[in-house]
């Protein structure tokens, strides 16, 4: 299966300033056993560009999917769906969210494990929540590369901010991707990740380190979100303070569920078991 990345400038908080749209392509079998024009899936069309328009026109786009419905991933779903007459997919149980984000009704729904035929191969939908509650990843062929959306980036880290983000789910997603051991990860922002396990281990370590700092802040007496934020970060947060605050909240929620701190949404305290 062939995967092509198209960098699309769009309003996003990602450092790259753009979102990656992907075309997953597989050859269509014919009655005589030969391969004809390629069938394609368009993934995360964040906006229209001349280059992406040409790429879509040159292919037989049969399906449109998104890894999740954040605004910087869905801006051109409706336009390309109308032009290609492709089947539009949304995550089962999240159709209202998809409709609100894209302005259109999906044709079909997916669940983790759904396989969408693409030529002589198929694309398999993987559960990948954490960054967003409706997040999925797409495995391009059995044992193939994975379009991971905003699960991972080659450099830096992914924002997992409450209430939208779930840190426990995100860490589980990273571990599942590590276990899958794909040959490559194609992220929602930035270049291809050609050393997936190394990158996933780095992201897991980053989350563990930040979580430890949050917990130490609470045990050290920080009892409000702002106080924990100040103690857990030692870098300039200009321009990203809201994201850091949401991240700290997500860590506090995870630690509270695991019984390692107390957190009621307003006040934090060390766990009674400490």
Characterization of this structure:
This protein is an alpha/beta fold and 274 residues long. 33% of the residues lie in helices and 26% in strands. The protein contains eight helices and 13 strands. It has helices at residues 50-57, 71-74, 77-84, 95-102, 167-180, 196-219, 225-232, 241-257; strands at 2-9, 18-29, 35-43, 60-65, 87-91, 108-110, 115-118, 121-127, 136-140, 146-149, 185-187, 261-263, 268-270. A six-stranded mixed sheet has the order 1-2-3-4-5-6, with helices on one face. Helix 1 links the parallel strand 3 (35-43) and strand 4. Helix 6 packs across helix 7, helix 6 packs across helix 8 (241-257) and helix 7 (225-232) packs across helix 8. The longest helix is centred in the C-terminal third of the chain and has 24 residues, at 196-219. It is elongated, with a radius of gyration of 20 Å. The model has no long low-confidence stretch (mean pLDDT 94).
Give a quick summary of the entry.
The chain has helices spanning 50-57, 71-74, 77-84, 95-102, 167-180, 196-219, 225-232, 241-257; strands at 2-9, 18-29, 35-43, 60-65, 87-91, 108-110, 115-118, 121-127, 136-140, 146-149, 185-187, 261-263, 268-270. By secondary structure, the protein is α/β, with parallel strands linked by helices.
């Amino acid at each position: 299966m062939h995967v092509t990345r198209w960098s699309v400038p769009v309003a996003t908080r990602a450092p790259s300033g753009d979102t990656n749209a992907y075309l997953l392509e597989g050859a269509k079998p014919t009655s005589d056993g030969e391969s004809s024009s390629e069938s394609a899936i368009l993934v995360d069309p964040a906006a229209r560009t001349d280059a992406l328009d040409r790429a879509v026109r040159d292919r037989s786009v049969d399906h449109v999917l998104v890894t999740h419905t954040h605004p910087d991933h869905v801006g051109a779903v409706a336009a390309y769906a109308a032009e290609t007459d492709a089947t539009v997919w949304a995550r089962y149980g999240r159709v209202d969210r998809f409709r609100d984000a894209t302005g259109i009704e999906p044709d079909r729904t997916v669940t983790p494990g759904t396989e969408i035929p693409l030529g002589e191969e198929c694309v398999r939908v993987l559960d990948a929540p954490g960054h967003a509650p409706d997040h999925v990843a797409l495995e391009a062929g059995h044992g193939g590369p994975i379009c991971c959306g905003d699960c991972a980036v080659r450099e830096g880290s992914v924002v997992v901010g409450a209430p939208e983000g779930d840190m426990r789910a995100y860490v589980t997603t990273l571990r599942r991707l590590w276990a899958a051991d794909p040959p490559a990860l194609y992220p929602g922002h930035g270049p291809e990740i050609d050393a997936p396990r190394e990158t996933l281990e780095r992201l897991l370590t980053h989350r563990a380190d930040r979580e430890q700092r949050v917990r130490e802040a609470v045990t050290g007496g920080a009892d409000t979100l702002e106080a924990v934020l100040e103690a857990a970060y030692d870098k300039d947060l200009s321009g990203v303070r809201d994201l850091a605050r949401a991240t700290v909240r997500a860590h506090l929620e995870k630690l509270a569920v695991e019984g390692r701190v107390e957190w009621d949404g307003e006040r934090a305290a060390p766990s009674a078991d400490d």
